[in-house]
Amino acid sequence: MQLYSASLTSYKRLKTSEVKIGDLLLGNNHPIRIQTMTTTDTMDTIATVEQSIRCIEAGAEMVRITAPSKKEAENLLNIKNELRKRGYKTPLVADIHFTPNAAEIAARIIEKVRVNPGNYVDKKKFELIEYTDADYAEEIERITERFTPLVKICKEYGTAMRIGTNHGSLSDRIMSRYGDTPMGMVESAMEFLRIARGESYHNIVLSMKSSNPLVMVQAYRLLIQTMQNEFGSCYPLHLGVTEAGDGEDGRIKSAIGIGSLLEDGIGDTIRVSLTEDPEFEVPVCKDLVKRYANSQEDGKSGSREEVSSSLPDLPTFGLSYNPFEYKRRFSFAVDNIGGHHVPVVIADMSNIQKITPQHLQSIGYTYDEATDKWNISDSAADYLFSGEQLLDFSLPGTLKVIVYANAWKNAPDKTKYFPIYSDSEFGSSDMHSPLINFVMMDCFNGGASVTDLSAFANDASVVICLSSTNKNAMQSVRRMFVELAEKKINNPVILITDSYWQTPDEHLIHFATETGALMLDGLGDGICLGYNSKAKMETSKTSGRTYLEVKDSYQFTNNTAFSILQATRSRISKTEYISCPSCGRTLFDLQETTAKIRSVTNHLKGVKIAIMGCIVNGPGEMADADFGYVGSGPGKITLYKGKEVIKRNVDSTIAVEELIGLIKENEAWVEPGQ
Ligand code: SF4
């Protein structure tokens, strides 16, 4: 194993133990399983059965159902029987929080139970208590006593279990000793795992979810390393980003978290949590796993086989950064790229024959003829790549243009236009910009070692643009970052990612996975997304599937770039929404409410708003939201500032206005358009 993965330079699945969930085998190189969770009331047997069937028909290989109390756990039998009667054998999973009694009933009925180690035994009081070693040992004894009966039942009935840690709901014990850190998440699961192993029960899957992909990815990596060090082997891993939200942002956040791990061969089953109907989560899961061989969608174009890589091995020091702790790679600044500047966005418009001011609207610049001024949005691209084209209109003040070196020679204003070269061209060219020169490199193309970097290494005007035509492109680019570090080359780096996929959903996942995986490790000072000539933007609605609607592909890539930077928390350009996917506990229409809150707050750049379906888990799962809107009873909402309750049981008809009032009181409000 290399640090946390079977290989960091070739695509290779991490070997995990085999778990049996009904007839479904998971882990041990079995295909990456797809699952989702119902949002119906568990007591409504027919609604739950019908929604489960929609999920199964869409491709879910497991369906999770909430069991908040004994009566719902008991009703799982009716749901299971009805599904079997209708010919569906898909394994069911009971989702348990706070109620060991419900877990013990469910484990006798269905194929798998999920417990949250943060709240299975502990009631969270959000208290910071000092635990001595003796206190801590006593706590572990208490958990052992409460958790062992469930382990014994699972063992007796052949039921599988997921120990599912959530970043937002760690126990006070863990919080006091480790804080809400990735290590705290790992230890939370390990406490329960050690108890289960003590009973020789191994039919276990683990997860480390967070709404922040950075925390989530680090926690999984640490968990793998911890299991490997302690047991010499790994249990299968269920991947997910919690409260990812909806639409493009929800998909991007999920793809960054889940995709970054899948790229390194990590993950045996995935669930994408969207604030949408659960059957819509399944196609997103399919798009994520079909990129790799040995999945349900095996053999689709572009999928990755387990092949040994042509990339050079990592040097003996391994990676050039700590994969368990975020730190942005050091680079010097070239103009507004690199150094302490936020990562830039480069819009590729080189396919447009004649770029006009109207085209710039797609990338955040709107020209107002009456005032002869440009309106610049928070998501306006910083650079425009126009290929050979010099533009015949005056540019907005903050926009600069990148052109091929030949065309640049004729550019009228060399403070607005900058040349781009291939790596070999730069050294042989006799004309360079004194300000910024972009130099493109295809990383280890076909395994060829890197060309001589000395012509531009540490040149104070050079921004390196890395891309790869290899199938394991992310690993190739990452390997190049190690090479740069080894050679002490500190130029800023732009990540160039082309997509060969077909649908907007596939492009979105490709861009988010390839660039997100690097940005999460602090690698990259800017991104440029584009389509390869073979790619299409197809939104056909074949086989009943609904695709993301894309009317303007340039706007789509520009927004995707900004959303990737937002999700990796490297550049904040808009409001962030943390909304739960909803489940049988949900007390209001989450999709409708999320849309309503979004429509009145989407101009609040940098403000994090959580919209959670229930008071039982919502507050714990809101992570680091600034404001929370949480269902606390039928027609009742409780409003939070951070983790503090500000207004209890507000009537839902006025709760959105009250939320706005709360944001205003805390001086986080600005009027739209300001
Ligand atoms: S926060 Fe949302 S998804 Fe989680 S238990 Fe409550 S309603 Fe269900």
Spell out the blueprint of helices and strands.
Layout lengths: L18 E3 L2 E3 L6 E5 L7 H14 L3 E5 L3 H16 L6 E5 L3 H10 L2 E4 L17 H25 L2 E7 L5 H7 L3 H17 L5 E6 L3 H19 L6 E2 L7 H17 L5 E2 L10 H9 L54 E5 L16 E4 L4 E4 L6 E5 L12 E5 H4 L8 E6 H6 L8 E6 L19 E6 L5 H14 L6 E7 L4 H16 L6 E6 L21 H15 L8 E4 L10 H12 L6 E5 L5 H4 L5 E7 L2 E6 L2 E8 L3 H11 L9
Parallel strand pairs: 3-4, 3-10, 4-5, 5-6, 6-7, 7-8, 9-10, 11-14, 11-20, 14-15, 15-16, 16-17, 17-18, 18-19, 19-20, 21-22, 22-23
Antiparallel strand pairs: 1-2, 12-13, 23-24, 24-25
Bound molecules: iron/sulfur cluster (SF4).
What does this structure look like?
By secondary structure, the protein is of the alpha/beta class. It is 32% helix and 19% strand. The chain has 17 helices and 25 strands. An 8-stranded parallel beta sheet has the order 8-7-6-5-4-3-10-9. An 8-stranded parallel β-barrel has the order 11-14-15-16-17-18-19-20. A hairpin with a 2-residue loop joins β23 (627-633) and β24 (636-641). α5 crosses α6 (182-198) and α13 packs parallel to α14. The longest helix has 25 residues, at 133-157. The protein is globular. The termini are far apart. Iron/sulfur cluster binds at residues 580-583, 585-586, 612-614, 616-618, 621.
Average pLDDT, to the nearest integer? Answer: 91
Count of DSSP H/I helices: 17
Report how far the terminal alpha carbons are from each other.
52 Å
Biggest beta sheet attributes: 8 strands, parallel
Identify low-pLDDT runs: 295-302
Helix content: 25-40%
Structural category is alpha/beta
**Major β-sheet strand ordering:** 8-7-6-5-4-3-10-9
Fraction of residues in β-strands: 15-25%
Enumerate the distinct ligands: iron/sulfur cluster
Basic shape:
globular
Per DSSP E runs of 2 or more residues, the count of β-strands stands at: 25
Radius of gyration: 26 Å
